[in-house]
């Protein structure tokens, strides 16, 4: 595994390359269970903005450093001293405006994981509370270890989750009843339950095995046409948010441009010749 030096300036995230065209991003605050404070979520957005445009990256694995947690969520002490929670008392409309701007900024930083053009595979392990659900719901694929303990924790600190879980989780899993169950109760649920409802697609014995599986999947995705993989992500995300008719129209417009790629010819030729195709950087 090699470090990606162009990402070495980030303080709270380690970015390495376990295989060609694969980036591994680790939340790097293990002594505090990878809990987030404002500088971290701002930096997370910057990391994924950079990965999205990096031609040397075709797939991303996201995990948490250390053995205990993917992330325990929001660092409540730091948040209580930050710009969102500590909006000055006084005129209600002005206080609300200040808080709303802060929440929008927080939401947008997390949403950049979803907006990343490259497929993102999230590996959950250990404590995965609150913001862990917000972030992982933005990923394209979720994998977890058997020790994972998950919770939509915000109700227990006196608020409705506002960074993305309540908007995305109902679209990730098949049961709205289950979503309301875990979101309103803030109860802890495990890997088997997460697999049963479709929140994760794989469960492995350990964090190490989960990361190995994620890297293997990312390596497989990176071996395929980046035009095809990134286009598939774009079209699936569009289909999730729009009608079938609108999605079919968007697909036709998208592919009228992307079918002109040399990747199509390379894939066909390799199929006939029984060889492995190579694709130019995108």
TrEMBL record:
It is found in: Peroxisome. It comes from the Eukaryota. Pathway: Lipid metabolism; fatty acid beta-oxidation. InterPro entries: ClpP/crotonase-like_dom_sf, Ech1-like, Enoyl-CoA_hydra/iso, Enoyl-CoA_hydra_C. One of its GO terms (molecular function) is delta(3,5)-delta(2,4)-dienoyl-CoA isomerase activity. GO terms for cellular component: mitochondrion; peroxisome. GO terms for biological process: fatty acid beta-oxidation. SUPFAM superfamilies: ClpP/crotonase. Keywords: Acetylation, Fatty acid metabolism, Isomerase, Lipid metabolism, Peroxisome. Belongs to the enoyl-CoA hydratase/isomerase family. This is Enoyl CoA hydratase-like protein. It comes from Pseudomassariella vexata.
């Amino acid at each position: 595994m090699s470090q990606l030096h162009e990402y070495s300036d980030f303080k709270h995230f380690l970015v390495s390359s376990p295989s060609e065209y694969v980036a591994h991003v680790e939340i790097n605050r293990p002594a505090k269970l990878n809990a987030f404070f404002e500088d971290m979520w701002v930096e997370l957005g910057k990391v994924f903005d950079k990965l999205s445009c990096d031609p040397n990256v075709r797939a991303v694995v996201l995990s948490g450093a250390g053995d205990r947690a993917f992330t325990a969520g929001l660092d409540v002490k730091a948040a209580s001293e930050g710009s969102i929670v500590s909006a000055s008392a006084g005129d209600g409309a002005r206080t609300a405006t200040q808080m709303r701007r802060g929440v929008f900024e927080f939401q947008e930083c997390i949403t950049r994981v979803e907006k990343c053009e490259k497929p993102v595979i999230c590996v959950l392990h250990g404590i995965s509370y609150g913001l862990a659900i917000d972030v992982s719901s933005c990923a394209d694929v979720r994998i977890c270890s058997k020790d994972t303990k998950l919770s939509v924790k915000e109700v227990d600190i006196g608020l409705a989750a506002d960074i993305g879980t309540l908007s995305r989780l109902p679209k990730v899993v098949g049961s709205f009843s289950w979503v309301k169950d875990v979101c309103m109760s803030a109860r802890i649920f495990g890997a088997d339950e997460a697999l049963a409802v479709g929140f994760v697609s794989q469960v492995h014995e350990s964090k190490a095995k989960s990361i190995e599986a994620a890297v293997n999947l990312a390596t497989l995705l990176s071996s395929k046409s980046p035009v095809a993989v990134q286009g598939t992500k774009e079209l699936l995300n569009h289909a999730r948010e729009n009608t079938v008719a609108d999605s079919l129209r968007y697909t036709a417009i998208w592919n009228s441009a992307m079918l002109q790629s040399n990747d199509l010819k390379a894939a066909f030729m390799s199929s006939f010749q029984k060889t492995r195709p190579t694709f130019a950087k995108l």
